[in-house]
From TrEMBL:
It comes from freshwater metagenome. PANTHER family: DTDP-D-GLUCOSE 4,6-DEHYDRATASE-RELATED. Residues 41-213 form the NAD-dependent epimerase/dehydratase domain. InterPro entries: Epimerase_deHydtase (IPR001509), NAD(P)-bd_dom_sf (IPR036291). Signal peptide: none annotated. Gene3D superfamilies: NAD(P)-binding Rossmann-like Domain. This is Unannotated protein.
Amino acid sequence: MFGVSHAARGARTNLATARPPIARAVATWGSTMSTLTGKRILVTGPAGQIAFPLVQDLVRDNEVWGIARFGDPESRAKVDETGCITRVVDLANPDWQDLPDRFDHVLHLAIFQATSADYDYALKVNAEGTALLMHRFANSTSVLIVSTVAVYDSNPDGAYLYRENDLLGDNRAPYSPTYGISKIAQEGVARSMARVLNLPTTIARMNVSYSPLGGLPVMQLDMLVADMDVPVIAGGSSFNPIDEIDINLQVPQLLDVASVPATICNWGGDDAVSTEEYVTYLGSLVGKTPRFVYVPDGIAGRAIDNTRREELIGGCSVHWKDGFQRTAKTRYPDLYVGP
C-alpha cells in the first residue's frame, strides 16, 4: 500500500541483496501451506518493495519473468541479478512480443502512484493496464491482483476494522490523490475480466507491508533515526503490518483460492496496531523516542478484519514485533539495541 522512503540512510546494510535468514524455516509453520515449484510466473513491477523480495524467493524453484517500464537501469539490473528474466513493458501501452505465449500464474503488483492529479493516466495504467494484462494472458491458470485498503471509504474511527463488504470511496490520499479511485477502477476491471475470460482471479487488498527494503513502518523508522517528527493523522490511525516473509508464503495460497467470480480478501498482518504503539516499539529497537505530531490530513488508518483471509488461507507466521526486530536489525545494524 505504501512505498519506501530513503529519508535517513544512516548505518545501512546492502538491502538489495540482504535476505531474511529465517525465511525458509518459517515456511514450515503455516496451517494451509502451498508452494510454487517448476512454474513459469510473470511478475509486474518486480523491482518494487513488495515484489522484489517475492521475486528473490520465487526464482529459487521457478522460471520467473518480470515486466516494468524500468526507467531506472539500476532497478532492472537489480532484478536481473536475482535470475528473473526482465522485459521492458509499459502497461499504459503494452508490447507483449518479447514474452512467452503463456504463464502458469500472473502476479500483478505494478502500480501507478504519484502526487499528481492525473486521473486519466492513473486509470490508463492501473485499470486499463490490468484489463490488457489479463486479456493477453487469459490462458494462465490463475491471476493475483494486488489491490489496496485505500479503496475503502474512510471511517472516522481510526481503530475501525474494515471488512471486504464495507463501503468503497475516493479518499484522495494526500500522498497520491488518484490512487484510491484508480485502484477501485482496477478492481472493477479485474472482476469483469475474470468473468469474461473465465480466468480464476484473486484480488487481495494490501494493508501495510514492510521489509528491510521499505514500507510505511520503515519510512517511520527512517524518520526516527533522522530525529524527525513522525506525523500521525488526528483522530488516530491503526494498521495491520505484514512482513515480507508472510507475503511470500501467502502468495501461493492466494493463487490457490483464485476463482470465477474473483475472490476478494483483505491482506495484512494478524494484529491491528496503532501508529503510536508500533512506532514507539520501532524507536525502542534503535534507541529513539518518537516525537508525534498530529496533523489534519495524512495517511488514514486502515486496520482490517481478517476473518475472510483466515477462512481462505489461515493466519500469519510472523508477529509484527518479531518482524520489526529483524527489519530494524537488518536496516540499521549499528544502531540496533533490541532483543
